[in-house]
């Protein structure tokens, strides 16, 4: 099953006034809260420690992702990973956390709307976004949304990968096995032990064995993907 990749666009712009949030309400476009971004810093001093409400929305989003993975794959290894993921997000302990944004989050104005992006919009500004340790750039073109900073997920690692259009997330490898669920954007992915890149669309699920080299090249729109690593 493939989830249709509709080409509606989500508008994200940087708020330039002093309010934390305001809403863009254009008939033709989904609504996304807009946030002032201080490059690389927390949103501002008033937007302090977050918990319960944000965590509930994040758990809801993660459950949507877990269900989609189970529907999408019949690979027993991926299903096992998805089941572990589902267990960890059933009633995780919430952490106190400071939302943290990066410039690329405001630049994803061409993120295509998919069945996942509405719930993503609800959490994007409450997330903890970090630059990737695998690149030198500081969150201008790509970012990782670290769910483990928000929820106690035990021994698994769960995050969102954002790669701006025409940017590449570098080839890398690691010991834990990993699954990805593509949430928005079309890109060329290397995964699963292959040396070739294949084009994936929203709804696709891929699996990396331990130490498989993997990476992604975003095409004409930003990539948003969920990743789960487990032992
Ligand atoms: Fe990885």
Automatic annotation (TrEMBL):
It holds the Pfam family DMSP_lyase. GO terms for molecular function: dimethylpropiothetin dethiomethylase activity. It comes from Cocleimonas flava. The keyword Lyase applies. Signal peptide: none annotated. This is Dimethlysulfoniopropionate lyase. InterPro entries: DMSP_lyase, RmlC-like_jellyroll, RmlC_Cupin_sf. Keywords: Lyase.
